[in-house]
Amino acid sequence: MRKMLFSIPESGWWMIAVAATAFFMVSMPALGKGMKLPDEVRSTLEQQKRRGKWAFYLLTPVAAAAVLATNLLRPEPAPAILFMYSVVLASIPIALFPVRARMVKDYIAQQQNPDIKIKPDRLTMAWVVGFLSTVLLGAVLALMATPYGQGN
């Protein structure tokens, strides 16, 4: 049981990391689908989305590759780094999904009143930070409980 997490070969971890990146890139733009928005807000968001779409699809894989390349230069075994990378990328859209409407509401309020400072929604912040912290804690505990590097 202790070697189960890293009994996957390194090539398998690379495929998992690529799948996590693809999941992130598909799910982040899809977070806004199906939300009921006023027409004026929807048109404004669509314009901003079109402007940032090329940057997201171009820069995200480049940034992800840079992070992976930098971390893989370290002496730790690659599967452990690929595991953490995959966990982080897969958990971000999952963390944002339940609170996306609250985040959009705050964004709309900020756009409609640019000179008034809108405070972040505390429930949203608590959910995102709590969820991501729990996921990362679980991933770190999995790494600590597993003799990674020995199962390859």
Major beta sheet summary? none
Q: What is the total tally of β strands?
A: 0
| Average residue-wise pLDDT | 82
Please give the count of helices. 5
Short description:
By secondary structure, this protein is mainly α. It has helices spanning 10-30, 39-72, 78-96, 100-112, 122-145.
Describe this structure as you would to a colleague.
It contains five helices and no strands. The chain is elongated, with a radius of gyration of 19 Å. Helix 1 runs parallel beside helix 3. The longest helix has 34 residues. The chain is mostly helical and 152 residues long.
Main attributes of the structure:
about 150 residues, mainly alpha, 5 helices
Secondary structure layout:
Blueprint: H1 10-30, H2 39-72, H3 78-96, H4 100-112, H5 122-145
Helix pairs in contact: 1-3, 3-5
